[in-house]
Amino acid sequence: MTESVYLKNGGMTPVAAIPRLEYGDFGQAIVTQVQKGQARVAAYFAVLSDEPGAVLEIFAILARERHGDLAVFRTLVGERFESLTPNCSQVHLFEREIAEQFGVIPEGHPWLKPVRFHRSWRPDHDAWGRDPAAHPLVGDLDFYRIDGDGVHEVAVGPVHAGVIEPGHFRFQCYGETVMHLEISLGYQHRDLERMLLGGPHPATPSQIETIGGDSTVAHMSAYSKVIEGLTGCPAPARAKAIRALGLELERLANHVGDLGALSGDVGFLPTASYCGRLRGDYLNMTAHLCGSRFGRGLVRPGGVLFDLQSSLSARILAALEDCEANTIGAIRLFFDTPSVLSRLEGIGRLSRSAAEDLGLVGVAAKACGVPRDCRFFFPTGIYQQEFDELITDENGDVFARARVRSREVEVSLGLVRRILGNLPKGETMIPMGPLPPESLAVTLVEGWRGEVVHVGLTDGTGSFRRYKIVDPSFHNWSGLALALRDQQISDFPLCNKSFNLSYAGFDL
Amino acid sequence: MIQVLLERYRQGFRTGAFPRLEPVLPERFRGLPIFGGCPANCRECETTCPFGACQVVDSQVIVDLGRCLFCADCPACVHGRLSFSTEYRLAADRREGLRYGGGTYSPAEGLEPKLKKLFGRSLKLRQVSAGGCNGCEADCNVLGTLVFDLGRFGIQFVASPRHADGILVTGPVNENMRSALLDTYAAIPEPKIVIASGACAISGGPYQESTEGCRGVSELVPVDLFVPGCPPHPYTLLDGLLRMLGKRK
Ligand code: SF4
Known about the structure:
The complex is a heterodimer. Chain A is α+β, with helices and mostly antiparallel strands. Chain A has helices spanning 23-35, 92-102, 192-195, 204-209, 216-231, 237-265, 269-290, 310-335, 338-344, 352-358, 362-366, 374-377, 383-386, 398-421, 472-483, 492-499, 503-507, and strands at residues 5-7, 12-14, 20-21, 40-48, 56-64, 69-77, 80-82, 105-107, 151-156, 168-174, 177-184, 299-300, 303-304, 439-446, 451-458, 464-470. The radius of gyration of chain A is 22 Å and the shape is globular. The two termini of chain A are 35 Å apart. By secondary structure, chain B is of the alpha/beta class. Chain B is globular and about 70 Å long. The N and C termini of chain B lie far apart (44 Å). The structure holds iron/sulfur cluster.
C-alpha cells in the first residue's frame, strides 16, 4: 500500500502531512491502483515549487469508490518528466493541462496538444515553443488526419447553428461514416482558476456560480464544502438539506430538458415541447427558493442564504404535484414510441472498458454500466440516509444515456419530496472563520452531469495558492469523441445531445 | 397515436398571457435595485461592490445595471440600504440608460422608426455565445418553448448569419471568441442590429478582471439593446426585444 493521506469527501489535511513521493513511485502508485480498478483519478494538478531542482509540485487525488475515500499524494517534477498517459489514460488531459499551464513537457505523451489555448502561466515557458508575446491562436493545433481515397474532413464550429456554446469539431469521414472525431475546445476560456488565486475574493462566489451556468448549485456546493472543510465548520443540517433540494431541482430541470432536446433531435415533437416547458417549471421552483432560476445566491460557505418556510415548502410541493404526472407522462410517451426507440438504440455506443479507461463520470459512465455516483459512494448530508438508488444501464448508447436520465428523474422526484417533507430544524447559516494556512481540502458533488471535484490549497497566509476545478465535462468530452467512431456523421447532433457536456465547465 | 393525443390533452395549454398580462415573478426574484437614505458623504459602495456597479455622483448613488449581478448577498451597501424589487423591465437602448439613480426607471424605447418598420414584423437573430457560462444561453433558449413562444412575435433564431438581421451576444467576449464574433457580425447583411444580453456581454460581468479580454461586446461593435441580469430573466429579455421593436411601451 502506497503512502498517502486518505480523506473523506469534504475532508482536509495540512499539506505537510501529504506524503511527497519520488516521481517513479508516484507514477507507479497511480498506474497500479487505476489498472487494478481500485481507484480513479479525480483530480491531478500542479503548483510552482521552490524546492531545489524542481519546477512543479504535482498533486494527485484518487477516488476510491470501494473505500469511500480519497487518496492524496504528491511529487516534484522538473521541466521534463515521463508521461503517465501511456499506462494510465485517465491522466491524459490532466497532463496536457499541466503542460499548457506551466510550459513543462510530459515526455512520451501520445497526444500532447493544447487544451484551452491560453498563454503559459510561466512567462517564457511554452510547451509548444509558441511566441510568448502573442496570445495563442485558438484551435491552432495539429489535428489528427486520415488520408486516402474517399476520405474527407468535416469541420464544424466554433459558432454552431443553435443557441449553444462554442467549440470546434473535426471529423475524419469515409463516406457518411465517422472514422475519427477530434474535439478542440477552449473558446469559452476566461482564466477562471487564476482569478481565484490569492482568494477567496469578494468576486469569487459569482465566479464559482458561473463555472458552468447550468450547474450553479453543484459547483457552489462543492466550493462551500471546500471552505467548510478547510475551516472545520460544517454547514448546519437544515442548510445541507436545502442544498440537496437545490441540487436535485437542478438535476430535474436539466435531465427533463435533455430528454426533451433528444426528443426534438429525433423529430418527436410532443415530448420535446412538453419537456421544454417542464424544464422551465423546475427552474421556477428553484427561483421560488432563491429568486434565481439557476440557483444563483442559494448556496454560500456556511450554509444557504434562503430558508424554506413551511408556506414555501407547501408551494414548491404543490408545483411539484402539478409537474410530476406531466413529467412522467411526457417521458413515458417518449419511451413508448417505437420510432423514437429505433433512433436511439445502438447509436453512439461506448464500451464499458472505454468508459473505465477514460475515467468517465456521471450519466455517460452510468449508461455504460459503470457505477459512479458521489451521492452513493461519497455521501454527505442528507444523502447519507436518503440515497440508495444508484442507477446504471448497460449498452452505453444514446438510449442508455436517455434511460439513465429518465430513471434519475424518478429518483430525484422522490428525493425532493422526502427533503421537503422532512426538513431538519435549526439555523441555515453559520459564520466562517479565516482559512488555515498550508492546508488542502477536497470535495465531490454529484451534479446532474456527474462528479464535480473542487480542491482548495492554501498558502502560508491562508489564501488560495491553487484552486482546482474539475467539471464532469473535463473527463467526458473524450467519451463523446470515442462514441462517434463508426457512426453516421448525421448522428452527431443526437450523440452530442445525449452527452450534453459543458463547454464553459471544461474551458474554465 | 391515441397515447400521443391523450398526453396532449393532459398537458393542456401552456402559453403565457404575456404581453397582455404582466408575468407574476417569484417573490424572491431580484430585479431593479431599491436604495436611498444613505448616510452623508458615504461612498463605500464604490469599493465594496466587486464588480464596480456602484458610483456616487453629487451624493447620489448610481447603480450600473450593466455591471450589477443582482447578488443575493449584495455586499455593496454595508448599511443595508440596497435591496432589490421584482421589477423585471430593465432593458435599455443605450449603455448610459443602464445607469440608474433611483426613482422611475425608463426602459428601452426601441429602434429608430425606419428600423422598427423593417424588423418590426420579422426579426431573425443569430445567437453568439462568447465566453460566458451558458446561463444566458439557457434562458434565451427558453423563449422558444411554448410558455413564451417567441415565434408568435415574429422573432426567430436562425442558424446562418446570412439569414439574420442581427446578433444576440451572450458572454463577455473573451480572447478566444473575439474573431469568431467579429466574423459572424461581418457575415450579417446591413442594416443589422446587436443585442447584448447579460452582465457579461454588457460589461464583462463576473469576468471583467480576466486576463482574457472579457470587457463586453460594445468595445467591438455598436449595440442596440442592452439586457441586464446574470442571467436576464426570460421575461426581461422578451420585454426588451418587444420594446426594441416597438411592440411594447
Ligand atoms: S451574465 Fe451571468 S449568466 Fe450570463 S453568461 Fe455571464 S456569468 Fe453567465
